[in-house]
Amino acid sequence: MYGKSLPRAVLLILGVQLTALWPAAAVEIYTSRVLEAVNGTDVRLKCTFSSFAPVGDALTVTWNFRPQDGGSEQFVFYYHMDPFKPLTGRFKDRVVWDGNPERYDASIILWKLQFDDNGTYTCQVKNPPDVDGLIGEIRLSVVQTVRFSEIYFLALIIGSACALMVIVVIVVVLFQHLRKRRWAERAHKVVEIQSNEEEKLNQEKKVAVYLEDTD
């Protein structure tokens, strides 16, 4: 009696544990969180995800938008086996699917940015049985011109320092070259003066010998 009930009890305990662990396997969303783009350009709203369950035909992706100045949430895009664009509203004919479920990518592209596109874009992915999880957010700021970030500023400093070092090296090489050239010219002049003096002395000796012979 106890021999038969023991395996059942073990299976029951394992079943309870697996049931308790299953909700923890939720979809995780990854986004840039903060994004800045220039007015009139196109921008890619990147959203990737991870899921405990394999990606299948039940996968759904929902994009929504909350304006920065307040107001109700607006529909942006929906994907379920095929992309479904908005037929009305501000995003009509301005948003396209750029994701790949096989690569766990649920990104979209927003065309022709406008200043009133400022706000928060949410990306929600459901991959049954993984339907729980946090919703990814991207806070988009549409600006007239892109401001220099710390990375650009650091790159500018490094580039300027490299250019300065190159200039210094060139100046040092030119200075050494000119210095060697001057030393060479001086040495040539010294040799030329010495040769002239030796030739003058030889001429004087010849004259002296000639005078002695004539006497």
Q: If you had to describe this structure to a student in words, what would you say it looks like?
A:
Residues 1-26 form the signal peptide. It is a single-pass type I membrane protein. The protein is of the alpha+beta class and 215 residues long. The chain folds into 2 domains: 25-146, Sandwich (Immunoglobulin-like), CATH 2.60.40.10; 148-215. The chain has helices at 2-21, 150-214, and strands at residues 28-31, 33-38, 43-45, 47-50, 60-67, 74-80, 82-84, 95-97, 108-110, 119-126, 136-143. A 6-stranded mixed sheet has the order 2-11-10-5-6-7, with no helix packed on it. It has a 3-stranded antiparallel sheet with strand order 3-9-8, with no helix packed on it. Strand 6 (74-80) and strand 7 (82-84) form a beta hairpin.
Per-chain topology:
Layout: H1 2-21, E1 28-31, E2 33-38, E3 43-45, E4 47-50, E5 60-67, E6 74-80, E7 82-84, E8 95-97, E9 108-110, E10 119-126, E11 136-143, H2 150-214
Parallel strand pairs: 2-11
Antiparallel strand pairs: 1-4, 3-9, 5-6, 5-10, 6-7, 8-9, 10-11
Subcellular location: Membrane
Membrane topology: Single-pass type I membrane protein
Keywords: Disulfide bond, Glycoprotein, Immunoglobulin domain, Membrane, Signal, Transmembrane, Transmembrane helix
